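User: As part of a screening pipeline, I want to sanity-check one entry by hand. Below is the sequence and the SMILES for zinc ion. Please return the complex as structure tokens so I can compare it with the automated output.
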Amino acid sequence: MAWFKRSKEGITTTTEEKLEVPEGLWWKCPSCKKTIPTADLKENKYVCNNCNYHPRINSVEYFWILFDDNAYKPLFEDLRPTDFLGFKDLKSYQDRLNDAAQKVNVSEAISVAAGLVHGHKLVCACMNFNFIGGSMGSVVGERIALAINHCIKTKSTLLIISKSGGARMMEAAFSLMQLAKTAANLTRLSEAKLPYISLMTDPTTGGVTASFAMLGDLNIAEPEALIGFAGPRVIKETIKKDLPKGFQRSEFLLEHGFLDFIVDRKELKDKLAEVMAILLQEK
Amino acid sequence: MTYLDFEKPIEDLQEQLDKLRKIGENGKVNMASAIKELEDKMLETRKGIYSHLNGWQRVQLSRHPERPYTLYYISQLCSKFIELHGDRTMGDDKAMVGGIGTLDNESILFIGQQKGINTKQRQYRNFGMANPEGYRKALRLMKLAEKFNIPIVTLIDTPGAFPGLEAEERGQAEAIARNLYEMTLLKVPVICIIIGEGASGGALGIGIGDRVLMMENTWYSVISPESCSSILWHNWNFKEQAAEELKLDAKSMFDFKLIDGVIKEPLGGAHNNPEEMAKILKREIKKHLIDLKDFTPKERIDNRIKKFSAMGFFEE
Ligand SMILES: [Zn+2]
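Assistant: Here is the complex for your manual check:
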């Protein structure tokens, strides 16, 4: 559910160990191994200048890519997680929350912002994988519900960028109910005839896929993103066979009819604006 | 009768009772008072054990091999029942059953996961783990019920949605997500009841209702205690602790307002008296159906959205 192991190129690393947002002066592409100046990578919308690999980035980078003049209003930041259940495994949930708050520059596994995209009003709820594996707990569910309210109030389009291992186990059934909560609130957005575009990025699995991520008016994804319900390891253990190449990747989902299209990060903004202009019949 | 590990004292007493009864039957010695004494002790022991069950023990009871499953309840509750098959796209999922029938002359639709009662059946039913076509069949039937203004009852009993290769190809996540969305908007009354295992998205996929109820010895959570133990403790041996931490029992779920009610079971669990359990279930369903009739479809939908929207904890 919340975390899974992925194997790529023969190496198995837990998702948490993986390199997050590129930092420093130089960035080494995990796919083509080329070393690239971080400034060039940013200039290229955080897509490898050499091989087009899409490294994992967080909300701050997506907001920078999307919003006109990098101008946007962060929303619902006051809403913070708490260890209501006093959940404890090898570590207490409260400690996990404290660690996350210290280590990363975001306040939860999702950040919401409102702004303009080529002049079109957009509310973007973007998941942060570096906050407890992008897992969905109560704050994620509530921020999405509030983002939907904000869309209705301001007649904006909703974009949710998913990047998550699934529901947050340390919130037990409360995290499960966020699937119901987000799906239920999306019915209200639909009633208001406002577009909802779901962008799935690497990885999108578990309860996130089984709720809002698959419910877009348009479901789109970045290239080669892992997208699925069960994690590959669980499936492999269940069927006791190796999984075919490309299984559960964006291209696989497009082929099986679950995506409208795959979008390169460099073209995301233009493509979104185009979709909004056509759906909303705005010039 | 299959005894669970924590039922050992009951098993021992039962053995003694059986012995005494046999001696009594031989007629040489009068065992009546000894038997009576042991029976009283048995009742006390059972009451003692079942009134202090922990999370893991509830999980064990929810999986008891003799526990009644969906089709048993349907056969007990409905005077008429016609099972309906298929999702009209892919196939007929044997792990998800459903059909139309009557409950005391009122039309009703039942949906539920079905587990098998023996090895062969368990495989045939895929251990109650539905594929996408199961969730799509469920939705098709719910839409049918909605069209003819028939209330819906879902009986939930699953260790999870099936994590298979074909399930992914056919969109397990999409099928569940679609049901969450569409069930929110159903115009007819919907009652969802956990009758055994309520594992995660696989359970929730038929779990959006005006009333969500749990039988006393069932569990409902985001993950099974075993998987939780394996992921968070990196080891399968912490399932009991995981069950406690997850607070997956009916009472906790009710206290957290994540469900709307708890259905009492006969002493020792549903399998100790399936007929009595079916009677209790029928009473509960009828009671809630009567309550829900007082609302308009719009009120029911608004209340559903409000109820699920209120779930969560955070600081502001
Ligand atoms: Zn590269």
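Points to compare against the pipeline: The radius of gyration of chain A is 18 Å. Residues 56-280 of chain A form a domain with the 2-enoyl-CoA Hydratase; Chain A, domain 1 fold (CATH 3.90.226.10).
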